[in-house]
Write a structure and sequence with these properties.
There is one protein chain. This protein is α+β, with helices and mostly antiparallel strands. Helices cover 23% and strands 28% of the residues. Strands 1, 2, 3, 4, 7, 8, 9 and 10 form an eight-stranded antiparallel sheet that branches. Strands 5-6 form a two-stranded antiparallel sheet. A hairpin with a 7-residue loop joins strand 5 (100-102) and strand 6 (110-112).
Length: 178
């Protein structure tokens, strides 16, 4: 009987020590590699949440791919909101540092994106709190890049970078001619 109690304690000790190793490893892995997030609201319609209502897309946010703060025009990214640091927002990258952007209601009609910043916008311009409200966003607020839609199952897909029509940096040759 004493042998069984000792074996039971050994198994319990092994489980507890394994648990205390597994949890930090899992949390660190998720913090560094990727995690999932619900996309709520209409700001990224029609690409995300095309049905609207209570149906929300769930995306895989790749943290590893943005560890060096490198993003491309057209990427959908998660950033800490410049207006509310407790909130993360998901928007599309329209311009990178050094780009000239034609804004959609910002205080200046044209903006040069400063070094260490990028310009983000929601796809549904009338319903988006984005760079047109708060200006260029520091790359330090970058949290992850949306790489896949993973829910609902009928929308499973890889997210490829793409810019909406007539959005993106201005062509400097057009500016010089005009």
């Amino acid at each position: 009987m004493a042998h069984r109690a000792t074996a039971g304690r050994r198994y319990l000790r092994a489980f507890v020590s394994g648990f205390f190793v597994a949890v930090p490893v899992t949390v660190t892995t998720l913090d560094r590699l990727a995690y999932v997030a619900r996309v709520e609201g209409a700001s990224m319609q029609p690409f995300l949440n095309p049905e609207g209502g209570s149906d929300c897309d769930v995306v895989l946010l790749n943290r590893w791919s943005v560890r060096n703060y490198e993003v491309r025009r057209g990427d959908i990214v998660s950033v800490m909101s410049p207006k509310n640091p407790q909130q993360k927002i998901i928007k599309r990258v329209i311009g990178l540092e050094g780009d000239f952007i034609r804004t959609l209601g910002y205080k200046n009609r044209y903006v040069r994106v400063p070094d260490g910043h990028f310009w983000i916008e929601g796809d549904h311009h009338g319903h988006s709190l984005d760079s047109n409200s708060f200006g260029p966003v520091s790359v330090g607020l970058l949290h992850g890049r949306a790489s896949h839609i993973i829910w609902p199952p009928n929308r499973w897909q890889r997210i490829e970078p793409s810019l909406p029509v007539n959005r993106g940096p201005l062509d400097t040759e057009e500016e010089e001619e005009g």
